[in-house]
TrEMBL record:
MF (Gene Ontology): DNA binding
Record domain SpoVT-AbrB: where: 1-39, 43-85
Designated name of the protein: SpoVT-AbrB domain-containing protein
Source species: Rossellomorea aquimaris
């Protein structure tokens, strides 16, 4: 699970109860509002602003519970970018 900062969640439309789309690309996971007809992974944003990162994406990226990562904000694309350190 990852907690998305409230200020940016609201700005990007990732409010609790809505779906987030998770895209693995360029050794990163992009988290943005889900498109209706997407075939990418989708997860609900929780009441606390968390999003569950699916196991297949964690495995693809090589993330373990002990790993450090950074969360970047892309204002142009209205998304969060999760990058393993």
């Amino acid at each position: 699970m990852i907690t998305l900062p409230k200020q940016w969640r609201q700005r990007f439309g990732l409010i609790p109860g809505r779906m987030a789309e998770l895209i693995y690309q360029n050794d990163s996971i992009y988290i943005k509002p889900a498109r209706k007809l997407t075939t990418n992974n989708k997860r609900y944003v929780s009441e606390k602003g968390t999003v569950h990162i699916p196991k297949e994406l964690r495995d693809e990226m090589g993330i373990t519970p002990q790993d450090s990562y950074t969360l970047h904000i892309n204002e142009e694309q209205h998304c969060f970018i999760l990058i393993r350190e």
